[in-house]
Structure formats: C-alpha cells, structure tokens
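Chapter summary example.
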Amino acid sequence: MAYHNELFLILVFTIFGIAASIQLFYYIYFYMAVNLYKPRLSDGTSKPVSVIICARNESENLKNFLPSVLEQDYPDYEVIVVNDCSEDNSYNVLGEYLIRYPHLKVSTINKDPKFTHNKKFAQFIGIKAAKNDILLFTDADCKPESDQWLAMMSSHFEKDISFVLGYGGYRREKGLLNKYIRYDSIAIAMQYLGMALKGIPYMGVGRNLAYRKTTFFENNGFGAHNHIISGDDDLFVNSNATETNTMVEFRTGAHTRSVPCSGFIQWAKQKRRHLTTAPYYKLRDKLLLIFEPLSRVLFYTALIILLSFTYLWPLVIGIFGLRLIIQTAVFATVQKKLNEPGLIGFSIFFDIFSPLLTFTISLGNIRSKSDKNRWR
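The structure predicted for these 376 residues follows.
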C-alpha cells in the first residue's frame, strides 16, 4: 500500500511540475509581452476613418455615449450608426445628432417579420455604407477613454497593416460581479494582446477593433461564419489576421469602456454567447487556449493533494510561491497599463475558480433555434 501511495504521489508531483511549467511559460512568454510592449511611433499622417456602430434599442446609450465618438480630435472621419430594427427612441435621438454633427451617417434596417438576421448583417450594412478603407468598430454602450482614441487606433495603419486590436474594458462599479467582469476582461486581453505580440493574433473585441474594408471584401466578409450568433469580431480576426498584418494598441487614451452587466444571469448569458465562437478557431489557437486553463486546474488540484499528504512540501510551496510572485507581478503591471485598478487581491481568488466557471457556462452552449438571430 505504501508503495502504491508513493507512486501516486510521484505521479501527482510530476503533473504539478508540468502544470507549473506551462503556467510560467504563458506568463513569461505571452502575458509579460503586454508589459514590455512599446508602441511604434506614428508617421504623423491622418488617414480617413469610418467608425461603425450597430445599435438595436440603444436610445439611452446612444444619447449618453455617441457624442464622445462624434467629438474625437481627428480631422477626417465619419461615424456610421446602423439603427437595426429599433423599437425605442433611437430614431429621434439619431435625428437630433444628425443635425448637430455633419459627419454622422445613419443606416436604418426596418423590422420585417419575414426576414430575421443577426448582428453580422447590420455590420455588413455599415461596412457597405463606409466611404473610407479604414474601419473602426465599437458598440453603442461603449465610450472612448479620450478624444485621442480614433487617432491612436488609426495611427498603426501603414501599408502592410490590415488589423489593429484594441482594448475594450468595462466601467468600474461596486460589487463582486463587477470586479470579476473586469478581471475576466484583463485575463482575456492578456491572452489576445500577448499572443498577437508574439505573432499569433487569434481574436479581437468588437468594442474596440479596426480593420480595412478591402481586407473584409477580399476575404469574403464573414463567410462561413455568417450563421453563428457571435463572431463578427473574433472569428473574422482569427480567419484573416497574421503575424505581419496585425498591430495592437492599448495606450490608456485608446481604450473604450462599456456598460457592464448588472446581474450574474445576464453576464452568464453574454459569456455563453461569446464562447460559441471558440470551436471555430484555428486548431493551433484552440490548443493554446485550452492548455492554459487546463494546466491551471491541474496545478491547483495537484497542489491540494500534495499539501494534504505533506509530500515534498517545502519544494511544493516554493514552486507555488514562484508562480504566485510572477503571476501577481505580471497581472499588476497589466492592470496598470489597462487602467483597471483595485483587482490584485481578487485576482488570486478569481484565478482559482475562473476555469471552472467558464467550463460550467460553456456546457450551456446548446442553442435553441429561437436564439439563432439574437445578437445582443
């Protein structure tokens, strides 16, 4: 019996060591790249830009946040709002802004009981209406952090660049759920920004994403992903972004802030919708995204087992401490760069249970047909 216990503990310790090594690799190679990144200086020229916002029943958000997009400090841009089958006061709100802002354009999609569609159709209408090649996307509930947002995001579009991945965070509010939403936003950003910096761009967020109109049409638009509820942002990036045609921009002035979900059920539905796109990623990207949370679960599980048996406990605690120091240092620096204060203490706790929460939510991704065309 003692012999079998020894073999079992050796196996658990081996798993613990491998899992810790994988974790350290992600933090040092991918996530630390976000900390070390220095943006490339712009050539100083302003390129014409079309900002595209799709809105369905967003009258209050348009009233509150659209002016911050329309009043950017930038010489040559238009803002296209696609009013998608809205049944609230959006038409009147947009009508008032059309009078005040000559660079605002509105495309209206009228409700038709014989024709239903997802957000990608509204995006397509906005892209078709755009007169400029550089397209910058955000949502109706998003507010740029500064009037330099447009200038910073567009500054990277040199001849060989087709995609610019930005950071879209959430407003800081009270409550544990808000802290977790903001933590989750940072964790995802460390992945997609860090991997892009290492030549593996796999996604962007529609709250703050730019790409070329020519790139969209040359690659058949949303193509084979048209039927999927989400994916107007990450799947298009995953299919077409490369090491050489993609840049990142996450200086503080280039961030956007969105209205966070106020309840867990609402957030879980939103999260579940976002997770529907993951199975369509490239195999390489799926494996990289699976290894990290899987290794984290194995790391903490093995840690508990080893400490409960006090097996090589000084070494086990040392390895745990090393990972904790690197994790905290990297997260603290990224938190500062992304202007997300007040999360360090919670990040250690969230780090433990977030893979389990994500896995639980992803189990609910069997969709009914009635959900097929809902885009928000």
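To summarize the output: DSSP finds twelve helices and ten strands in the chain.
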